[in-house]
Amino acid sequence: MIFLKKLSIHLLILAGLIYLPWVVKNPYYLHITIMSGISVLLASSMNLITGCTGRLNLGHAAFYGIGAYSSTLLVMKLGLPVWVAMFLSGLVTTLFGVLIGVPCLKLKGSYLAITTLAFGEITRLALMNLVDLTNGPLGIRGIPGHPTIALSNSLAISFESKTSYYYLLLTFCLICLLIIRRLLRSQIGRTFIAIREDEIRAETVGIDTTQIKIMNFALGAFFAGIAGSFYAHYVRFISPDTFTLSETFNILTMVVVGGLGTFWGPILGGVIFTFLPELLRAIAEYRMMIYGLMMVVAITFMPEGIIGLFYSLIPRRNGKE
Amino acid sequence: METILKVEGLTKNYGGLAAVAELDLYIKRGEILSLIGPNGAGKTTTFNLITGLESPTHGKIAFKEIGIIQLKPHEIVEKGIVRTFQITRVFRKMTLLENIAVAQHIAIRPGLFSTLFSTSERKREKKGFEKAEEMLQFVNLISKRDELATNLSLGEQKRLELAIALSMAPELLLLDEPVAGMNPKETEEIINLIGVIRGKGITVFLIEHDMKMVMEISERIIVLNYGKKIAEGTPEDVSRNPSVVEAYLGRREYQCSN
């Protein structure tokens, strides 16, 4: 019964998402929706590192940027197809995730935060100054979009309209989120939580915490890289200004207010914090103030985020009490 | 009987202070050995050294005649040495079931790709949860299987610690003060459990302050003071040893004369 109920809710949400472009005709709103999908990926990937394993990573925008730039460069400099570049950019970002993950193994708390923050800044400065490769602060224009997929002579999926991009992103998000969900509910996901709760104790139940922590960084980086690649080929313009520390804090806000360490929290946070700034456009100067206030309120009154609040309002799921 | 653990010349210095000094000891397979001594005598440090959480200044530790000093804690667990902690260190934000399931890591051997694509890994994970239920049954916590560990009382947390340790099928079980802070009834329960554990052929190495319990269940006792071994023998021998009485049991004598 509970299973059926859950399944039907999921199917309902999915049907709603598929139907959405029929309701939302305005391309601007559709654009925001697509951006919120990218945010969901970013927030979910950061949640793997910061929420589940409890390791504050302030260099997450760097993974996002590395994904965007590597995908762009693979296509524009090496002439690889966009689809291949997308996957490869995920792997390139994973490599960077491992590279930063290894020296960070022994670090936690504020020390880890400072180190990853430095990594983020180094990446941003590298993107600014490697002018030959990245075109520096001017950014890269005219990035090719996702090419048309020809299914047969008469039938082809092209990605020229916002609607088709919406469906492409929806597919990507669903695949990535299904993988993340499986990870979170597997033994690997449990080892993430165990490391967050007590790292030494995790070692003494036979967990190779070194291996798991590196894997954790690599996974977080991979999904952020994929998000970056998608962003690059969708927006078709990238510059270092997108991948700054304030973007990291944006993602962090999504994760914390949505619900640290949960599956649905970052999804909710990603959507809310992409639409909210658009709604607050009239009072743009106060945006960061409102963000800050929401962070304080969230941390003080709902330590498990919006999703934690939601779960505490509905009766316990196992129905035992 | 085979010697399962042999420790020779084990020393741990913190700056100028020797927490453990030239300690020699052995444990035979299947026995219950207790390590006692006043606070700060180096008992928990000894456990930390055996389980690889700290590395010794010098000395040798051999488990089944294989040196284990260079190994990491999780590798030592894999060899078959499992411990509990004096101050309970259960995973507080996880349910009781998850606490034990996550400890089946070595049996599950998860890989990234097998997690995503292999059904046999899902089976192994499921087995982990079955094991968890069985263990909760054993320590009589099954009714709280879906509670978060943080909601348990101290006595229950200690039992959960025991269940986690046992679920890993140890050959040598190191128990660090399993009844500290427990009432007599809870203590009695733990003593019974240790009896059952021993019946399964698991070797038990115990640190405990509860003298009644130590005298009741140990086959041999080693007494530490200031990191040095001051006595070793059967409970009767040790309780008659004058230096032990002076270092440790003296307090009890003083109370009796009042």
Structure notes:
- The complex is a heterodimer of chains A (321) and B (258).
- With 321 residues, chain A is an all-alpha fold.
- Chain A has helices at 2-23, 27-52, 60-76, 82-101, 109-129, 131-134, 162-184, 187-197, 199-203, 209-235, 245-259, 264-279, 287-301, 305-313, and strands spanning 149-150, 156-157.
- The radius of gyration of chain A is 20 Å and the shape is globular.
- In chain B, helix 8 links the parallel strand 7 (172-176) and strand 8.
- A six-stranded mixed β-sheet of chain B has the order 6-7-8-3-9-10, sandwiched between helices. A four-stranded antiparallel β-sheet of chain B has the order 2-1-4-5, with helices on one face.
- Chain B has helices at residues 43-50, 73-79, 96-102, 105-108, 112-117, 119-138, 154-167, 184-199, 211-217, 235-240, 242-257, and strands at 3-14, 17-28, 32-36, 58-63, 66-67, 81-83, 172-176, 203-207, 220-225, 228-233.
- Chain B is globular, with a radius of gyration of 19 Å.
- In chain B, helix 3 (96-102) runs parallel beside helix 7.
- Chain B contains eleven helices and ten strands.
- Classes of the chains: A mainly alpha (321), B alpha/beta (258).
Low-confidence regions of chain B: none
Fraction of residues in H or I helices of chain A: over 70%
SSE order of chain B in H/E notation?
EEEHEEHEHHHHHEHEHEEHH
The largest beta-sheet of chain A arranges its strands as 1-2
Total strand count of chain B, please?
10
Cα distance, first to last residue of chain B? Answer: 44 Å
Order of helices and strands of chain A: HHHHHHEEHHHHHHHH
Question: Rounded to an integer, what's the Rg of chain A over CA atoms?
Answer: 20 Å
What kind of sheet is the major sheet of chain B?
A: 6 strands, mixed
* Overall pLDDT score of chain A: 91
Q: What would you call the structural class of chain B?
A: alpha/beta
Helix content of chain B: 40-55%
Estimated share of beta-strand residues of chain A: under 5%
Strand line-up of the largest beta sheet of chain B = 6-7-8-3-9-10
Rg of chain B (C-alpha, Å) = 19 Å
Strand residue percentage of chain B: 15-25%
Overall pLDDT score of chain B: 91
Q: How would you classify the helix and strand content of chain A by structural class?
A: mainly alpha
